[in-house]
Amino acid sequence: GVCNLRLMNAVADWILEEGTLVLLKPQEIANMVWAYATLGVNNPLLMAAVADWLSMDGATLFEFKPQEIGNVLWAFATLGVDNADLMVVVMRHITQEGRLAEFHAQEVANTVWAFSKLAVFDSHLLNDVATWVLQDGRLALFKPQEISNMLWAFATADSHKPDLMAAVAALLLQEGALSKFKPQEIANTVWAFATLRIRNSNLMATIARHVLQGCVLAEFNSQDIANTVWA
């Protein structure tokens, strides 16, 4: 994207000064904070205002679709904005109000990644997500990045979910599955297994063979290689 800092700051000032935030629709709020995060522009006053608005009334979040909730969380985590009140409100909203049933794979992955990125760990949320993923064949709907982000989140939270990890391992062992994974996604996945101290010799051998075939290893950067050999 093209980042014009003066423009981004001017937009933030306009929203804050004119009280425009309360007039924005949920999708507009989600798109706005997504844009700031994508461009790496952290406007503390704007992000604080968004957090306050969403935390003010629990009913407000019911107006947000799962994708919008996921995008908001992703934006806060990407910018490293840790707002405890917002995270608690969103966490309760997802776990206690039954909203998780409305989520799709990407939204679930973004949500748990965001919480772990901000070091906000909640066993109820992680338990609910693990259960949700294992139901109705949902894991097969996850893209490689979503799988690796989800596993990274569970490992970062030191949340052990043997059934989930076994299901992921079985998925990765399917013929051709690893060819869809980018080097970083492979590295994050094996890092998660190692961090959670889950030894799956068959999976590790399969990944090793995949990395060593053709030009796969040449696509790895130094961090990917380091994480993979460490795992």
Mean pLDDT: 92
Helix percentage: 55-70%
- Outline the low-pLDDT stretches: none
Number of strands: 0
- Give the C-alpha Rg: 19 Å
* Beta-strand content estimate: under 5%
Number of domains: 2
Q: Which overall shape is indicated by the principal axes computed on the Cα atoms?
A: globular
Structural class: mainly alpha
* Largest sheet geometry: none
Tally of individual helices = 12
Summarize the structure.
Residues 26-229 form the RNA-editing substrate-binding complex 6 protein domain. The protein has helices at residues 5-17, 26-38, 44-56, 66-78, 84-96, 105-117, 123-134, 144-156, 162-172, 183-195, 201-212, 222-230.
Could you characterize what this model shows?
With 231 residues, the protein is mostly helical. The protein folds into two domains: 1-102; 140-231, no CATH class. It contains twelve helices and no strands. The protein has helices at residues 5-17, 26-38, 44-56, 66-78, 84-96, 105-117, 123-134, 144-156, 162-172, 183-195, 201-212, 222-230. Helix 6 packs parallel to helix 8 (144-156). The longest helix has 13 residues, at 5-17. The radius of gyration is 19 Å and the shape is globular. The two termini are 34 Å apart. 35% of the residues are buried. The mean pLDDT is 92. It comes from Eutreptiella gymnastica. One of its GO terms (cellular component) is mitochondrial matrix.
Keywords summarizing the entry:
231 residues; mainly alpha; 2 domains; globular
Helix-strand layout with pairing:
Blueprint: H1 5-17, H2 26-38, H3 44-56, H4 66-78, H5 84-96, H6 105-117, H7 123-134, H8 144-156, H9 162-172, H10 183-195, H11 201-212, H12 222-230
Helix pairs in contact: 2-4, 3-5, 4-6, 6-8, 8-10, 10-12
